[in-house]
Amino acid sequence: MAVLLRCVAVVLTLLAMMAAAQSQTATESEILTIESDRLFAESAFGQRVARDLEAQQSILLAENRKIEAELAAEEKRLTDLRKGMTPEDFRAVADAFTDRVQEIREAQDAKARAIGEMRERQQGVFIQAADPILFELMKEAGASVILERRAVFYSTDAVDITDLAIKRLNRTIGDGVRESGDQ
């Protein structure tokens, strides 16, 4: 009797595993949809990139606040010095200060652009890493195309593979540290 119960348990387990495996693939369809923004944002890779970018933006913001305070103090000091200076001498000092402020602004803007470019690079790395996984999902479903869900006027959720793709990406590439090249 115990052997029979064990056999039944094994068969039920195998059936449950087969059902789970079948639910892991998308419904068979010629056309699949995906929410690419959500695919990136909810994947471990995208979440790591978001954390990295947020950390860099926080550092830049703190740096900007510090620079702003230093420049405000320097501007006040220059205003106080103005009383004892000739207009020509003050103009030279004021122009130098203005040039310095412009250089700092350009440097900080370049840092902000670099953070934005990092996001774009990481999204490119993500797409390259996701490509074979999305192709595999497409093959499994017998599909010939994956469309951006926003571009589709109406469809059933059955053809949306976003959740499944996120699971597979997380399992396959994780947070993408090895693929990213920025670490």
Q: What topology does this entry show?
A:
Blueprint: H1 2-24, E1 31-34, H2 36-42, H3 44-82, H4 87-141, E2 145-148, H5 162-172, H6 177-180
Helix pairs in contact: 2-3, 2-5, 3-4, 4-5
Give a structural overview.
The chain is mostly helical. The protein is built from 6 helices and 2 strands. It has a two-stranded parallel ribbon with strand order 1-2. Helix 4 (87-141) crosses helix 5. The longest helix is centred in the middle third of the chain and has 55 residues, at 87-141. The termini are far apart.
- Strands side by side in the biggest sheet: 1-2
Task: Please tell me how large the radius of gyration is.
Answer: 28 Å
Main sheet overview: 2 strands, parallel
Which H/E pattern describes the elements? HEHHHEHH
Q: Could you say which overall geometry the principal axes of the C-alpha atoms support?
A: rod-shaped
Class from helix and strand fractions = mainly alpha
The amount of beta strand, in percent, is: under 5%
In short, what is this structure?
With 183 residues, the chain is mainly alpha-helical.
Features:
single chain; 183 residues; mainly alpha; two-stranded parallel ribbon; 2 strands
